[in-house]
């Protein structure tokens, strides 16, 4: 198995991995949703890959086994993100037949190394029930001080 950073040549693979993750997470997408998402992903990956977005792929000669994405944003610094850069970890997926043999742990460790090299101060994520024990094992913690909140606009 090889673990590597995705490049601009991997856009079709990244689109498939995003759709597969969303199907694993939501169970279903309408054709309209799929088309809208595919269209956004093509533009998004072309624009952001290896600038403020990185993806790690675990692969064999024929197959992608696992992946994780990191979207980096820059904002006014504070003591908790002194470089102003934070990463959002998303799309952590290991295909079912390759689970529980440590692949996602290796993929996330690689993305953490890459994030450190890019000066990212901290990484946040929203954990699924399946993902939470994995993240805890790797050292992610729930914030004792802040509750994550959101408002849906569109
Ligand atoms: C969550 C997921 C990415 C884990 O991938 P994986 O390659 O199996 O993870 P690892 O083998 O590296 O797991 C490492 C450790 O995390 C914990 N862990 C992983 N999956 C777990 C599960 N389903 N239940 C409980 N603990 C789990 C265990 O401590 C495990 O170590 P162990 O197998 O020695 O006990 C995979 O189950 C998946 O793709 N799920 C569907 C998508 C998803 O929910 N992604 C997370 C989004 S936040």
Automatic annotation (TrEMBL):
Residues 1-154 form the N-acetyltransferase domain. It holds the Pfam family Acetyltransf_1. SUPFAM superfamilies: Acyl-CoA N-acyltransferases (Nat) (SSF55729). GO terms for molecular function: N-acetyltransferase activity. This is N-acetylglutamate synthase, GNAT family. The lineage of its organism: Bacteria, Bacillati, Bacillota, Negativicutes, Selenomonadales.
